[in-house]
User: What shape does this take?
Amino acid sequence: MKGRFKTLAVALAASCAAMSAPAVADNHAGPNMNDLLNDADSTGDVLTYGMGPWQQRYSKLDKVNTQTVKRLVPVFSASLGGEKQRGQEAQPIVYDGTIYVTGSYSRVFAFDAKTGEKKWEYNARLPDGIMPCCDVVNRGAAIHGDKIIFATLDAHLVALNRETGKVIWNKEIGDYKAGYSATAAPIIAKDMVITGNSGGEFGIVGAVQARDVNTGELIWDRPTIEGHMGTMRGKDNGITGTTNATWEGDLWKTGGGATWLGGTYDPGTNLVYFGTGNPAPWNSHLRPGDNLYTSSTVAIDVDTGKIKWHYQTTPHDGWDFDGVNEFIPFDATIKGKKMQLGAKADRNGYFYVLDRTNGKFIGAHKFVMQTTWADGIDQKTGRPNFTSDGRPGAPSGADKGKVVFASPSFLGGKNWMPMAYSQDTGLFYIPSNDWGMDIWNEPIAYKKGAAYLGAGFTIKPIADDHIGALRAMDPKTGKIVWEAKNPAPLWGGVLATGGNLVFTGTPEGYLKAFDAKTGQELWKFQTGSGVVGSPVTWEDGGEQYVAVMSGWGGAVPLWGGEVAKTFKDISQGGSLWVFKLYNQ
Assistant: This one.
């Protein structure tokens, strides 16, 4: 009996000790919703696109700083291999010693975070008829529990086992034969995976979908063009807007408005913010009216899938000024008042600040050299002051309309590449481009699966010494604090850190680091191909790491015209680069 009581006492003591011991993360189970919500504050991993649900792309890590960055050296470079090169626009996800990246042609890779050894690779089986408008890119994945989730060029959403790369579920989000595709990194909110769609140049209808993260089953679907019915668990959930309120006739049925860049999530307001693309076709004379909800930001209630507010940056868009650019929440005190705000550097060349709780316009300022389509934003109404001769003319019969010069070009003052916000400086760091275009309208009719533009264009530089410019902007004043010019267009994301650094890449192949306060270039490294991905940083074993994808591509080589010819000799590639400080 004594032996039995002694054994029981030991067991009870062990049990009590276990209960009083601090909780240890179960990495095998994978990150949960709380982990994702805390990603902006955690430093040992990168669990979300944008490094936190607000996607400020800021890390408080400061071991790599203005003094030490000169000692930043490569740890490894991991090749994506094969002949599937093209643009590598992904942002890495880092968890439990593994780096997950997506690659061109809808691929996913898992690499050892210390050695670069490939653990597994997944290649989506793409049909021959895919119709991506702007290269075969993919911008990143989401992680949740045992899953890595990403979108494919044939408009599917796929969940893979994060340890093996095996498919858990695979769901279609659109008909690729009608021009639908998908390239954005999904976001996770309340155990739902939320994503948009691509294909605005083919007359598709933009939408945001929420799916059960464990099964992939559709929970709600919200179209972003007025007149289309939303759904909630298979039942009608209300029409978006009011049919024909801002679209005449039937053009709303193929109205564009693709949500191709994905969204941000604000747990405080319970809203996801998605930007919407250009209306279809580009020929604005065919579709009088504002054409809601194209070229806008829409705020959608996470629980109901209904639009709570919208703000349209380019009403009646006639220049392909997609409003998909990311809407980044931030808090600030303006004129003594604490405010819940959001900022967006729009493709149309203006930087907007809105009240993120209700979409109220706070202010807008130009962040590029020129905006010929408008001579400013009305600071009371928030609507652009259109110039009298800035819109391309209507075609006459089979003849094209009047050619006009417009700036920015349709590739935008800022395209897809995400900006960053520093909690230290209070500045936004915008990867911008200064260029223009000759643009004209042409006759066009919708045909399923065919390009639906009704416009022609020729892109031109507008400055002798640069196209790209990394600009630091004060959201309180709209003033540009500093700029760092670059000969080639900037096409990669930005990272800000507590080390007073800003990282971004260039098509010439460099990953660069700048002083966040002054814009002084402090460090650069040649990766061998254009850098059009988004850098991230994390710490492990007391050391800070920085990673970025390298691989030239995206829309510029395909659509850039004379500008693209200037940089035609840039080598393609596909690789993940990881850096840390060299300890002397």
Summary: DSSP finds four helices and 40 strands in the chain. Residues 1-24 have pLDDT under 50 and may be disordered. The longest strand covers residues 337-345. Helices lie at 2-20, 33-37, 555-559, 561-566.
